[in-house]
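User: quick one - fold this with guanosine-5'-monophosphate bound?
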Amino acid sequence: MKLLKDRIQQDGNVLSKEVLKVDSFLNHQIDPELMQAIGKEFADRFMDAGITKIVTIESSGIAPSTMAGLYLGVPVIFARKRKSLTLVDDLYTASVRSFTKQETNDISVSKDFLTNEDTVLLIDDFLANGQAALGLLDIVEQAGARLAGVGIVIEKGFQPGGALIREQGIRLESLAIVESLENGQVTFAEEVPSR
Ligand code: 5GP
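Assistant: Sure. Structure tokens for the protein plus guanosine-5'-monophosphate:
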């Protein structure tokens, strides 16, 4: 997605060989127009997939997911990160090791909002080692819902998450794939055709 890649080149900060900071339009300050374009792009790609719910994870997945939900006309559920769980009976939960915070969180989704009648699109801001996506996949499986695919705003292609998901035969649509963050430069890979 050219608009996104241009914005990453313009405003992204390479923090290290592994971490890209995009606080000015996605992770802290949010650019609504860019989010709208991102949401439309996800919606265009998954328009015919029969999606009934979008599932994401707080907090940075919420903005792009909400815009995609607007275009697809479906609700958006964000998995909550919780330290302790008391209402275990009413929740689907999974453990996720955070790439940026280096801590493990339980994430949870209420059973009220996801059922075996749903067809789900998972969306997240970044894909690195794939832990967040695998946690969300686990929750979709627990619900008995059908997975239509995974939509990622920025995939870091040099980390294993993308391969982990694609090798399970899951449709993965990444709007920008970063090939390298070497020498403080962002280099993009060609987009991987889905399935
Ligand atoms: P994963 O679970 O795939 O290892 O990491 C994905 C999660 O970590 C995303 O939800 C995102 O919040 C965070 N993350 C991973 N890599 C980066 C990065 O380079 N920059 C930022 N801003 N967040 C990242």
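One thing worth noting: The helical segments are 2-11, 23-27, 32-46, 62-72, 131-143, 161-166.
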